Amino acid sequence: MPKLNAAAPLIHDGCQIHNAEFGSYCEVGRFSRILNSSFQNYAYCDQLSDITNTTVGKFANIAAMTRIGPTDHPMQNASLHHFLYRSSAYWEDAPDDDAFFAARHARRTVIGPDTWIGHGAIIKPDVTIGAGAVIASGAVVTKDVAPYMIMAGLPATPLRARFADSIADRLQALAWWDWSHDTLRDALPDFRSLAVEAFLEKYHG
Q: I need a labelling partner for 45 at 20 to 30 A (CA). Which of 34, 58, 93, 186 fits?
């Protein structure tokens, strides 16, 4: 795996990046498209991901070929086609529909910290994925997902919780994803070896 650093994200070949912000130790896989989005510290996506109008939380793990925040077509109009809003591509005297694009950009998707978005998953606009949640491969998420919930299916429904509510609440209160880089390094042996209950007992009390 290539070395990551705090100064700049690792952007692999063939990516399209527009109006995007990246925190420390971020990575974007080959041929991904990132539009109007932000990646917080340690977040990454694998190859062929398409992420639009999204806030990607710290330590988010996004597998290949995911689609997050896909924009919708105007189903309420006589036509679905983008000549309605990308009009300047078709006529010299027809401007694009700026209000339509502004409404699209306002529909933000939020991926919480330490989440896992599986291969080929789709997460619709205006959806929030809670901390520690897991989205199964191929799932289509149309509604908010609770923290530490595992979701699967089309449309996605809860499969099971990763932890009891008491554990999930303590993990969110601990918010280890906000720790400094040095603190994370010091705790690395415990992340690797301790069960979640023992980890919380040591660091959260």
A: 186
